[in-house]
Design brief:
Elements lengths: L23 E5 L13 H5 L5 H13 L8 E5 H7 L10 H13 L3 E2 L19 E5 L13 H7 L40
Parallel strand pairs: 1-4
Antiparallel strand pairs: 1-2, 3-4
Length: 196
């Protein structure tokens, strides 16, 4: 039986100085009032105001909060958030990058203060003594005019909706031929099979 060893720190992973203070962070789940949902809303991936890294960071932040418990707050540090959110090169994110990500998420209302106000981050030394209180939201902000879901975007692009397939065909049978979609965007009548 082999014993697993702890991985050595990556050479690209910056070591935090023990002398530098680290800022505390509190994450609050969405105010769901008992309506629990662990899925991510479609609009977030389609939001044209968000960069790819901001969407990925949101997924990490959202996975850290569990709104199923009343007044549940996840407490960690800003440095740990940097470790959790991957950088484009694969290592941890820098504090500057995480602050930028939080700024981008704030612009579309995905992160706010627990009171619903825009989140403000600072690199000043005095800010390190204050806890950064972040509420993770999932609803689009009031007045959001972007795509609500992929189906709406597909319709707007004039593309037919994809067919839904329940199961793969049984072994030894050929897959059913694909039919042209009807004007409504769905296959309404199967086409007769030709040949034997």
């Amino acid at each position: 039986m082999s014993v697993s060893k702890c991985p050595k720190p990556s050479p690209t992973r910056p070591k935090a100085s023990a002398a530098s203070p680290d800022r505390m962070v509190e994450l609050y789940g969405p105010d769901a009032d008992g309506w629990y949902d662990t899925r991510v809303m479609d609009w977030i991936a389609l939001c044209e105001q968000l960069k790819d890294g901001e969407v990925r960071a949101y997924l990490v932040l959202r996975s850290l909060v569990v709104e199923k418990f009343k007044n549940h707050v996840r407490v960690l540090t800003l440095q740990l958030l940097c470790e959790l959110i991957p950088s484009p090169s694969g290592g941890p994110s820098s504090l500057t990058r995480v602050r930028g990500i939080l700024g981008g998420l704030t612009k579309v209302g995905l992160v706010t203060t627990p009171e619903g106000q825009p989140l403000k981050t600072s690199s000043r030394a005095s800010a390190l003594t204050k806890t950064l209180r972040i509420r993770i939201n999932d609803r689009a902000p009031e007045g959001y005019a972007g795509w609500r879901n992929s189906e709406d975007k597909l319709k707007a692009l004039g593309a037919a909706l994809a067919d839904l397939v329940d199961d793969e065909p049984a072994t030894g049978t050929a897959p059913a031929p694909r039919c042209a979609p009807s004007a409504a965007g769905r296959i309404s009548e199967p086409q007769p099979q030709t040949g034997a």
